[in-house]
Amino acid sequence: MASSWKESHGHLPGTIDPIQLAERGAYLTGTLPLQSMPRLAQGSLEGSGDVMVDLAFERQEGEKIFIVHGALRAHLRVTCQRCLEAMDLELKAAPWLILLKSGERLERQEGDADILVADKPLSLSGLVEDELLLALPMVPMHEPDRCPARVHAASVASAASDHVGRGGKSPFSVLSRLKKTK
Ligand SMILES: [Zn+2]
Questions:
Q1: Same structural domain for residues 132 and 147?
Q2: Rounded to two decimals, what is the model's pTM?
């Protein structure tokens, strides 16, 4: 657990003007209720809880580029798609967005940073929710060594890839299993 997270630090505004915040070099730190994010809450067995927000709005040195970056964290209660039991999912996102007014273009590419068109005030919870939804795993599952289904079927390790072989990011890959061996 990171100790730098503050449980509640000030009052977060409902709507923000990101470019104006970036001109001032503002920080937004605090919590938002999960209930303010219906699409995210829908995916949680318990639709309540807090979403931790830590965002810095900045103007990049010497340039007319506005950015917002920081860290977001939420705890969700979801269903493990392997054993179908409830599990805690710690959802984290580290957004890095370039803020543009509509019609504006970047003069040069900024790596693969995402772009947020922000020419009018927008909902802070909507922005946070969008970023967390991007971080949400398609198929939430327990860690391999914590999943009841896994424990009961430890001998079928080689068959596990049949169930979750999609996407090449299977937590059951031989490598990650070896690393987790205690
Ligand atoms: Zn499970």
A1: no
A2: 0.73
